[in-house]
Amino acid sequence: MSMKVELLKNSGYCFGVKNAIDIAINARKKYPNKKIYVLGMLIHNNYVVDILNKYGIETLDVSLNEYQEAIKNLECGSVIIFSAHGHDINLDKIVKEKKLIKIDAICPMVQQCMKLILNALNKNQKIIYIGIKNHPETNAMLSINKDIIFIDYKLPFYNQINTNDNYFCINQTTLSFIDLYKIHNDLKKITSKITIADEICKFTRNRQEEILNLPKDVDGIVVVGSKKSSNTMRLYEMCLNKYSDCIILFVQDEKEVNLDKLKNLHHIIVLGGTSCHINQLENIKNFILNNAR
Ligand code: SF4
Fold first, then answer.
1. Which CATH number fits domain 15-106: 1.10.357.10, 3.40.50.11270, 3.40.462.20, 3.40.640.10?
2. What is the position in ligand 1's atom list of the atom closest to the CA of 17?
3. Is pTM, for the whole model, over 0.85?
């Protein structure tokens, strides 16, 4: 029987990723002679880091607790781009002190979450934020107010919630909707004084829904992307949970594809998160078709 290899229908960059890349490239056009840096990865994909390098835009790929130091070490007057995930608002002070030119490539959907948090704070609601610990987006949101209650999506505990306060609950945009709804249900059992915003972005949700409804004959799945990418990791976890009978690989590029595992399969789906370019997926698909049969 011949091998079929297909991409997920919902594939390629999302709007927020395209937006961030455009902003970075336009920064180079606007400041042709300046040093330009991105704090952390603009989006979690090395392919994009390489593209930015070609434009002379350097990625400061340091961990979150090194962000302050990294900015302090930049030359005065250079350009700093903040990533699509948002950034710790306390960094703005250092940017000002160093007289850096700040360009914010935050995704509008993440920005919307910030606005919702500020609105709720103005109404004296207590904020509950559900997210991945030490992810830049979570860090950005928690920086808005020191009293935000953080619920670790991977290890939820509810001991900080009491029944006297009014809560507003919001979440990181790239979580699995299945796991998020379990946490929402737990919270609703603890208190009725809670308003819940479901802020999983539609690009993330569409992919998750498609994954939950793959054709019955699929016997192999290749997830392409970086393990730093939250939405890609959630897709991978969903595949592992739902398709335990399938061969499932997680790869960054062709070099990591284990062809032996794919030989003799009949229907393989190649998929990527919202930070994975469609060309990366096509390359993997063609590599499998040319070498695994
Ligand atoms: S996945 Fe959604 S929230 Fe994240 S950058 Fe893309 S559009 Fe924005």
1. 3.40.50.11270
2. 5
3. yes
